[in-house]
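Progress note, sequence design subtask.
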């Protein structure tokens, strides 16, 4: 199974999962020159940017470990573009990770944040 297809399946599974816990999906695969955000959802009064990672084995680490600082920075920059394009200026935001491995979902709310450290490094 190729990685793009596997990623699509994982994102669909993650979308079903966030709906099951009461989040409202807003956007899938939001792409800009700064990067891509797999899922954007609303959790009550919070806009949630979700990175979905899937792995069949742990030889290259866990799925959550694949969300490096560089990847976090790209997600943050892309999230800022989404907020600006959608005229969202005062919402609470959160960055979550959904890691899927061997059919098991691990949900990591507030996996990282958009502090100044991420934007300057």
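Output:
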């Amino acid at each position: 199974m190729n990685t793009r297809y596997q990623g699509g399946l994982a994102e669909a599974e993650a979308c079903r999962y966030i709906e099951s816990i009461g989040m409202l999906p807003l956007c899938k695969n939001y792409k800009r020159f700064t990067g891509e955000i797999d899922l954007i959802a609303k959790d009550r009064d919070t806009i949630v940017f979700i990175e979905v990672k899937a792995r069949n084995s742990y030889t290259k680490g866990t799925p959550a470990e694949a969300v490096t600082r560089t990847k976090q920075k790209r997600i943050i920059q892309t999230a800022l573009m989404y907020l600006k394009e959608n005229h969202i200026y005062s919402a609470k935001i959160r960055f979550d990770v959904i890691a899927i491995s061997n059919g098991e979902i691990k949900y990591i709310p507030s996996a990282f944040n958009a502090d100044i450290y991420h934007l300057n490094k």
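The mean pLDDT is 87. Work on this subtask will continue into the next period as scheduled.
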